[in-house]
Amino acid sequence: DTGVSQDPRHKITKRGQNVTFRCDPISEHNRLYWYRQTLGQGPEFLTYFQNEAQLEKSRLLSDRFSAERPKGSFSTLEIQRTEQGDSAMYLCASSLAQAGANYGYTFGSGTRLTVV
Amino acid sequence: DAKTTQPTSMDCAEGRAANLPCNHSTISGNEYVYWYRQIHSQGPQYIIHGLKNNETNEMASLIITEDRKSSTLILPHATLRDTAVYYCIVRGNFNKFYFGSGTKLNVKP
User: Fold this and answer.
1) Residue B92: predicted pLDDT
2) Which of A11, A24, B8, B39 has its CA at 20 to 30 Å from residue B23's CA atom?
3) How far is residue A11's CA from residue A30's CA, in Å, rounded to a whole number?
4) A34 in B contact zone (CB under 8 Å)
């Protein structure tokens, strides 16, 4: 399978616990994005990486959230001290950014987080 | 990036063409129109994109008006599996995708 992989698919955690999600992008893609989606809404941008550099973070990404892409390949998204409002689907996408080209994103299936 | 306006929901009979409209009146010359869809509990799936010419692929056709202020996604023979939320997005090169609430397409037998 050469698509975008996310792990785990589902995560249930107690309020106050830390959680970490992993995303494996398409191997030749240099850009990786994290989005969050709550019920009935479209995905909302959180952050993105070009190779290993985190180039932009949304205001939605509070201090409790941190994302890394240490070797420019897979990425992790960690949420510390989870709150019930963090319950959502967390989506990862990757793309190839090249000058003069316009490529779309390929999304993973997402990680559904439930904070109880 | 320009904003888009889509109807909240639409119905379509199975086997008929589904025509999903999108308004993007503030689109600029270098911005592309993208369509994605999201089936329940899955990640968004790319359908098609275009700049100014009409486009067709194995999934759908994209019709962009001459002034580029609106577009229509056409699913020529809708099936029950096409029931999903369809997102119309306008995006410039290297910019992020901003999703609105999309159109919920209900394909009915």
Assistant:
1) 73
2) B39
3) 27
4) no
- A14-73 confidence digits (pLDDT tens): 999 999 999 999 998 999 999 999 998 999 999 999 999 999 899 888 999 999 999 889
Q: Are A99 and A88 in contact (CB under 8 A)?
A: no
Which CA distances in Å does B89 have to A90, A111, B29?
20, 23, 15
Partners of residue B96 in chain A, C-beta under 8 Å: 33, 45, 48, 56
Greatest CA separation found in chain A? 46
Q: Do the bridges between strand A53-57 and strand A111-115 make them parallel or antiparallel, or are there none, so unpaired? A: unpaired
CB atoms within 10 A of CB B4: 23
Preceding omega of B21 cis (within 30 degrees of 0): no
Q: Is B58 in a helix, a strand, or coil?
A: coil
**Under DSSP, is residue B94 helix (H, G, I), strand (E, B) or coil?**
coil
Instruction: Evaluate the CA torsion angle B91, B97, B103, B104 in order and state its sign.
Output: positive
Which residues does chain B have within 8 Å of residue A40's beta carbon, measured at their own beta carbons?
101
Q: Who contacts A34 (Cβ-Cβ below 8 Å, separation ≥6)?
A: A23, A46, A47, A48, A67, A75, A77, A90, A91, A92
